[in-house]
Amino acid sequence: GSEMCIRDSSHILTFIAGVKKTSLSEARITVEAKSSEEPALNFEIVLAVVGATGMVGEVMLRVLSERNFPLTELIPVASERSVGKKVNYKGKDYKVVKISTAISMSPDIALFSAGGETSLNWAPKFAKAGAIVIENSSAWRMDPDKKLIIPEINA
């Protein structure tokens, strides 16, 4: 499956940078030829952040912004009590949606930091819908069918 577990959330962008060069290259990457320069890759990435209003989700969004992650659309996902609230990302407000709505919005990547139970219930559904799932809990760490990514070692 596409589900992956990253032990340290500070390395998510390092991992995504690697994913952009492989998995997404078959999906939504266009190449623009420039005169005598190498071609530039333009990524169109729809990114869901599950747990966007939580402490770790807020840090993920801040790091994505600081690193100028090239997303086309942000889908902030949170619990029912946060649905409808606004999350600001790079000066733009995004409306928080419930998790079932986020799947129907077809994200390319889903970052999960909403706890193990949420990951166990929903990460496979995102993966089945075609998203690359990167989750930050301990829910999948011992599952032999899921890749455990530690950027300094195997990313």
Outline the structure in words.
The protein is α/β, with parallel strands linked by helices and 155 residues long. Helix content is 29%, strand content 28%. It has a six-stranded parallel β-sheet with strand order 5-4-8-9-1-10, with helices on both faces. A two-stranded antiparallel sheet has the order 2-3. A hairpin with a 2-residue loop joins β6 (86-89) and β7. The longest helix is centred in the last third of the chain and has 13 residues, at 116-128.
Number of DSSP-assigned strands = 10
Proportion of strand residues: 25-35%
Q: Order of strands across the widest beta sheet?
A: 5-4-8-9-1-10
What is the radius of gyration?
A: 15 Å
The first-to-last residue Cα distance is: 17 Å
**Helical content class:** 25-40%
Main pleated-sheet profile? 6 strands, parallel
Can you tell me the overall shape?
A: globular
Q: What is the ordering of alpha helices and beta strands?
A: EHEEEHEEEHEHEEH
Low-confidence segments, given as residue ranges, are: 1-14, 19-41
Mean pLDDT: 76
Structural class: alpha/beta
The DSSP helix count reads: 5
What attributes characterize this protein structure?
single chain, 155 residues, alpha/beta, 6-stranded parallel beta sheet
Topology, element by element:
Blueprint: E1 3-6, H1 12-21, E2 29-32, E3 40-43, E4 45-50, H2 55-66, E5 71-77, E6 86-89, E7 92-95, H3 99-104, E8 109-112, H4 116-128, E9 132-135, E10 147-149, H5 151-154
Parallel strand pairs: 1-9, 1-10, 4-5, 4-8, 8-9
Antiparallel strand pairs: 2-3, 6-7
